[in-house]
Amino acid sequence: MYKNTLVPIVFDHDPSAERALEIAYKLLKQDGKVTLLHVVEEMPGYVSAQLPKDMLKNTVAEAEVKLTEIGQRLAKDASVVVTLGHPSRTILEQAESIGADCIVLAGHKPGFEDYLLGSTASRVVRHAKCSVHILR
Q1: Which regions of 59-113 does DSSP assign to beta strands (E)?
Q2: Which structural domains are found in the chain, ordered by start?
Q3: Three-class SS state of 51
Q4: Which residues, in sequence order, are bridge partners of residue 111?
Q5: Cα(131)–Cα(46) distance, integer angstroms
Q6: Which segments of the chain have a pLDDT < 70?
């Protein structure tokens, strides 16, 4: 049983969010807490220079609304965090900063390219300093 669980959420995998939260709460101690995380991936400078100035700020604001809605609908009393960064690196940094003892993360069926480059889930598994549960 875990006391502090981080659940990264990717919006285009919404059904997996429900499963991830279900598992997180099953593994949680009675007085434990859950943190929902969504990472907005930063764009290279040459791309962001071509976009409207407020686009990134608006994207983060929209993500906060979506994640809050998911939290209200699926999670009992989860904290919500939306941040900018590289997905796997940011998940690991957030887990460490909140003192997570477990990360519950949805994965996908690995393709050939994942064996060469590594998916977000596989990077998190390799580098996390806490337990990681991957859902497929």
Answers
A1: 79-84, 102-106
A2: 2-135 (3.40.50.620)
A3: coil
A4: none
A5: 37
A6: 13-15, 108-118
